[in-house]
Amino acid sequence: MASRLNVLLITADDLGLQLSAYGDNVIKTPNLDALAGSGVQFEIAYVAQASCSPSRSAMFTGLYVHSNGQFGLTNASDFSLHPHLHDATIPNILKRAGYRTGLIGKLHVDPEDKFQWDVRSRVNARDVKGMAVVAEEFIGNGEETPFFLMVNYTDPHAYRERDPQTREVIGDWSFLDRFEGIPSTLVEPSEKTVFPFQRIDTPEQRERVAGYYNEVQRVDIGVGLLLGALERQGHSGDTLVILTGDHGPPFDRGKTTVYEGGLRVPFLVRWPGISKPVRSMAMASTVDILPTILDATGALPAVEMQGMSLRPVLEDPDARWREYLAAEFHMHGPPWFPRRAIRDHRYKLIHNLLAEKESPRIAIDGDLGYLASREARYEGTPVRHAFDILASPPEFELYDLEEDPWEFRNLAAEPDHAEALERLQAALQDWRHTTGDPLLDPAFVEEMRQRVDSY
């Protein structure tokens, strides 16, 4: 058995808080719940940016997106990791430390050829049985050498059918209720299949949300198969397991925003000998993944990171930890619409850097939420107001997350909340200065806007 901890990092595309461990009552996710119950379940965790490539870049580097350079999607922009970070990613660092490195599923961070994988599997990442087989083969090959394995499920990402010969898109965005017979029992559209961060209740949206939940069920089954393989190979007791989503669901006011529906993800950590089963209120970020892995493995960092090892709060949920949790957005594909967000345990501030100068992206992956919000029945409601702000945001948004957890009432202009606004504005500026945010320079903001507009 390897003397050093192995590392298993699991992600699922577009997986938000739709797990029964996080209080969702639409489906049961017994395998994910079991993992949560065997380690630390972070109740409040953010991705760095609610867009796939930028989000994953922060996981790989321990740096916020504005510091690592992967501002947008690899297939919709020319952004990539800064050259000095090409050898500062999880697999490269751990390979230098003597680890076998494996990847199952997507990478989606550029430049891909700079990542050092001993094994990179092209198995269909919706084929959860096939992924578990590949994972078990990798885990069992090389008992004396510690391993780092990253397993990335495509579910619950939306799906577009492609021509098998040309790979051209031939269908609209939808969800795959079943793949290879999984899951066997489907969620049907109902009054339950309405997301609280949207409150859009139409037959079409009920159907889309039900499809999303069916894909989440497939992830749950896949994680059960994967952890079963780890157990069979005798490595449950010597493997650091981290599971998260790369951002929230592909629905308007979720993915590609800095609202809670986009930034908040499940974050589960099981560190043998360190963590104890607990629900932690410490605010975690995916920039903490690499520092935690280095702490657990003893590998040396390649650059100074902005995340922190989670060891203190894994050992003691009451340990002193960060007071504020920050995240950002720049672009998915065009347009360039940078945002910054910061929260404490009650209030959340959003700063839209180009408010009234540019229009943000509204619809994501074929979602119908914004269009439905234009219906007459939503006129004068908090739903219409929230979607109006989505389409044309003011410079600042402030939300009381205790009273309004899904951000339907902007308090930024209300005198009763002036103290919270000023405090969070100061905290956000401090975070931006501390992390060297290049967008503090208006010239850089404009340079990036022109660069993206030229695509």
Please give a structural write-up.
The chain is α/β, with parallel strands linked by helices. It folds into 2 domains: 6-323, Alkaline Phosphatase, subunit A, CATH 3.40.720.10; 326-453, no CATH class. The protein has helices at residues 30-38, 52-61, 65-68, 90-96, 128-139, 203-232, 260-263, 289-297, 311-315, 369-373, 382-391, 418-434, 442-453; strands at 6-12, 40-42, 45-46, 100-104, 119-121, 147-153, 239-245, 267-270, 278-280, 284-285, 325-329, 339-343, 347-352, 396-400. It has an 8-stranded mixed sheet, sandwiched between helices. Helix 5 runs parallel beside helix 6.
List the defining traits of the structure above.
14 strands; single chain; 2 domains; alpha/beta; 29% helix; four-stranded antiparallel sheet; 455 residues; Alkaline Phosphatase, subunit A
In short:
The chain has helices at residues 30-38, 52-61, 65-68, 90-96, 128-139, 203-232, 260-263, 289-297, 311-315, 369-373, 382-391, 418-434, 442-453, and strands at 6-12, 40-42, 45-46, 100-104, 119-121, 147-153, 239-245, 267-270, 278-280, 284-285, 325-329, 339-343, 347-352, 396-400. The chain is α/β, with parallel strands linked by helices. It folds into two domains: 6-323, Alkaline Phosphatase, subunit A, CATH 3.40.720; 326-453, no CATH class.
> What is the overall silhouette?
globular
Number of domains: 2
- Report the radius of gyration as a whole number of Å: 21 Å
The percent range for strand residues is: 5-15%
Give start-end ranges of low-pLDDT stretches: none
For this structure, what is the CATH class of the largest domain?
Alpha Beta
**CATH T-level fold name of the largest domain:** Alkaline Phosphatase, subunit A
- Count the E strands: 14
What spatial order of strands do you see in the largest sheet?
5-4-6-1-7-8-2-9
Sheet/helix structural class: alpha/beta
* Share in helix: 25-40%
What's the story with the biggest beta sheet? 8 strands, mixed
CATH architecture of the largest domain: 3-Layer(aba) Sandwich
Q: Can you write the helix and strand succession as a string?
A: EHEEHHHEEHEHEHEEEHHEEEHHEHH
pLDDT averaged residue by residue: 96
SS summary, helix count: 13
CATH superfamily annotation of the largest domain: Alkaline Phosphatase, subunit A
Distance between the termini: 51 Å
